[in-house]
Amino acid sequence: METEQLYTEYKPLLFSLAYRMLGSVMDAEDIVQEVFLTLYKSGSDHIQNMKAYMCKIVTNRCLELLRSTSKQREVYVGTWLPEPLVTTASDETDPMQSYLQKESVSTAFLLLLQQLSYVERAVFLLREAMQYDYDEIADMVGKSSANCRQIFHRAKRSLSVKYVPDKLDHVDRGQTANLVEQFMYALTSGDAAQIMKFLSTDAVLFTDGGGKVKALAQPLHGHIRISHSVSSFLKKWPGSLTCRIAMVNGLPGIVVYMDEKTWSVISFKVLDGRIVNLYFVANPDKLTHIKTLDLSIVGYPEPHGP
Predict the structure, then answer these.
(1) Does 305 fall in a domain?
(2) Angstrom distance (rounded) from CA 223 to CA 144
């Protein structure tokens, strides 16, 4: 099979694996590109199971990268959030975007995975999400089959929640999109009371500035504190703010621009028609891959919404 054909067929799968392992769009893309470049140079005639072979390479490259950058995570300033994966309606025909929407790449799920060790994360994803048997996983991660079985069950227990992929049906996705859109208009109004209407009373706000921009040092709890904090920040900001709706990690989210530059990406966890978690990624290093989106703009402080 030609490398180009393999790229088309397997890139979505490999990117999904790498992104969920790393929480980084750019690093995941680099690893996938590197795998196919290696394959192009070495050829594929000697490979019997192409899918397993490439998953093994991606898994090991991810493990190597995670180990080599572990110190950076240990000294990370403030809350760490994954790089947002932002797509638009025009991407829906892209096979990779279609694949990712069927897989669990939500911010909430990626953060759950961070509770696991690197090897636990790999074994868990290969077994639970990709349905490999333990013999295949053992070959990929260099452990015994029995050990992989133990690692998987330990990983599941440590997550402390039942693994439920974010496979929203059309109605749920539409309802979530409407809630996020209404929240966006409330956000751009700068009115704390309006913002609070869409939040669960026990909502939690996570912000990731990476020490590069101002952000909360710790998560902020409670709909009253969150709404007043966000409203106060927006009113004090001297620049011009605009917001755009986009798909963020497979679910409706918001891209925020300050003075026409990408300032933040917001993703959400929604439960029973209310926002329970808000994830603000403002670290500029995590936003460089986000292109300008060709979508209608909502401006602050004069929104055009209802």
Answers:
(1) no
(2) 48
* Residues in CB range of 50: below 8 A, 6 or more apart: 1, 6, 10, 44
CB pairs under 8 A, 24+ apart, for 8-12?
8/95, 10/50, 10/51, 10/54, 11/36, 11/96, 12/95, 12/96, 12/98, 12/99, 12/100
- Using the 3D structure, point to which of 125, 159, 193 is the last residue of a domain: 159
Cα 169–175–181 angle (5° rounding)? 130
Question: How many domains does the chain divide into?
Answer: 2
pLDDT tens per residue across span 54-79 = 999 999 999 999 999 888 888 899 99
Indicate if 214 and 112 belong to the same structural domain: no
DSSP state of 207: E
Lookup result for tokens 């929203």? 168
More confident residue, 123 or 260: 123
CA distance 153 to 51: 24
Domain span including residue 189: 170-300
